[in-house]
Amino acid sequence: MRLRTVLSLATLFLTCFTIALFAQPLPPGNAASSLSSLPENQSVSGKISSVGDAAFTLSVSKENQKPQTVEFQVDDKTRVEGKLAVGAAALVEYRSDSGTNIAVRVVVTHRSGFSIY
C-alpha cells in the first residue's frame, strides 16, 4: 500500500512538472523570426532578351545607366500571362532563393515592333 502511494505521488508531481514546463510561452523570436525571414517578392520590368526551357532573361534599363540582364528561372508554380518571346516587354514578379531569381508571375505586355489596333 505504501509503495502504491509513493508511486502515485511521484506520478502526480511528474505530471504537474510536465504541465508547468509546457505551459511556458515560447521565447520571443522563435516563431516570429521564422515568419519574418520569408523573402518578399520583388518586381522588375524590361524586354525579354532570351527564352529557354526553364529560364528566360530580361534586359532591364534604368535611367542614365547601362542596361542590365537579369536571369529568371521558371518552375511549375510560375504564372505566365501571355507568351514569352524575345523582344516582348514583360513585368516579372520574382523571389530570390539562394542567389537564384525564381519568377512567381510574368505578365507579357506586348511585342516590340508590332502594333495591334
What brief labels describe this structure?
rod-shaped, single chain, 2 domains, disordered C terminus, OB fold (Dihydrolipoamide Acetyltransferase, E2P), 2 helices, 117 residues, six-stranded mixed sheet
Quick structural gist:
Residues 113-117 have low confidence and may be disordered. The N and C termini lie far apart (96 Å).
Structure description:
The chain has 117 residues and is of the alpha+beta class. The chain folds into two domains: 2-36; 42-111, OB fold (Dihydrolipoamide Acetyltransferase, E2P) (Beta Barrel). Helix content is 24%, strand content 40%. It has two helices and six strands. The chain has a six-stranded mixed beta sheet with strand order 3-2-1-5-6-4, with no helix packed on it. The longest helix has 21 residues, at 2-22. The chain is rod-shaped and about 90 Å long. The protein starts with a helix and ends in a 6-residue tail after the last strand.
Number of strands: 6
Query: Structural class, from secondary structure content?
Result: alpha+beta
With helices defined by DSSP (H or I, 4 residues minimum), what is the helix count? 2
Q: Mind summarizing the main beta sheet?
A: 6 strands, mixed
What is the molecular shape? rod-shaped
**CATH superfamily (homologous) name of the largest domain:** Copper binding periplasmic protein CusF
> What is the CA-CA span between the terminal residues?
96 Å
| Structural Rg | 28 Å
Q: What are the segments in which pLDDT stays under 50 over at least 5 consecutive residues?
A: 113-117
Name the average pLDDT. 82
H-E order = HHEEEEEE
CATH architecture of the largest domain: Beta Barrel
Give the amount of beta strand, in percent.
Answer: 35-45%
Multimer state: single chain
Strand order of the largest sheet: 3-2-1-5-6-4
- Output the CATH topology of the largest domain: OB fold (Dihydrolipoamide Acetyltransferase, E2P)
Q: Give the CATH class of the largest domain.
A: Mainly Beta
Helix content: 10-25%
